C-alpha cells in the first residue's frame, strides 16, 4: 500500500496545490505551489480550517463536517491577506485516515499569477491553467507588439508629416506649411501680419562663389529670421531666396517696422564662407490681416508682394508697408 511520502510525491506531480490532512483536519503535507502562496507561514501542522475560511458550503465549521463533503465542490479563501479565493475538492483516504484536498484558483487565476509571481512551472503540465497562461502571455505579447507598432506608425506619420511641411535646406516651414497655417489663421479670424522677404543680390553669390555658398547664405538667413521671431510666429521659405514670416497677433506697424529694420541690418552684414565674403541684403514688404474686410490668402500675399516690390523699386535693402501704398494711391 502507498505510504504518505509516496502519495505526496505523486500528488506534487499531478496537482501541486494539494493538501494532505489527517483525521483531525491538520495539514500533514502541502503542495509546493500552494505553499508558495504563504512562503513565510508553513502550513504543515496547522488546522485546515485555521488556514482557510469555507464559503461554500456555509454550514461546514468542523473537521467532521469538512470530511463529510467528499466530492462536493468547495469555495474558500485564506483567512489572512491577501484573501485569495480558491476552489477545492476533497477525496477521503481509506480507513478514515484523513483526506486529499486539491485546490485551484478558478477564475481568479490571473490575479493569483500576478499577486504571487507564478509561472507555468507552478502548475501541473496537464492543468488547463497552463493553456490559459499561455493565451494570456500570447495576448499580452500581441498587445505589446501592436502598441509598439502603433507607436512606430504614429512616429513615422509624424515624421512624414513634418518632412512634408519642412524645407530640408533651412529647416524652416515650406510653402505648403505656410498655406495651411494661413488658411487656419484666416478661418479662426486671428489677427496677424504677413511679411514677405526677398534676399537682394543672392543670384550674384551663387554665380560668383557657387551653390554651396548660396546654400550657406540661405541657412544663415534662416537662422537670423528665426532669432528675430517669437515662438508663436512662423518663418517659411516659399521660393529660392524668398521667405514669408507670419506674426501671430501682431498688427502694430511701428513694431513690425522695427523688426524689419533689425532683419535688414543683420542680413546686410557679410557672411563668411570658405574665407570669402558673401554679401546680400533684404527687401521686405508687410501687410496686415486687419486691412481686409473679407480676407483671402491670395489677397494678403498679393498685398505683401506689392509692398515688397515697392521696397525693391525704392533702392532695395528697405521695408515697405502695404498701408503706405494704399495711402499713396488715395492721395
TrEMBL record:
Record InterPro entries: DGC-Regulatory_Protein, GGDEF_dom, HNOB_dom_associated, HNOB_dom_associated_sf, Nucleotide_cyclase, Rev_trsase/Diguanyl_cyclase
Record keyword Isomerase present: no
Residues annotated as domain GGDEF: 190-324
Name of the protein in question: guanylate cyclase
One term of GO molecular function: nucleotide binding
CDD domains (UniProt xref): GGDEF
Native organism: Ruegeria faecimaris
Keywords from the named record: cGMP biosynthesis, Nucleotide-binding
Enzyme nomenclature, EC number: 4.6.1.2
Enzyme type, top EC level: lyase
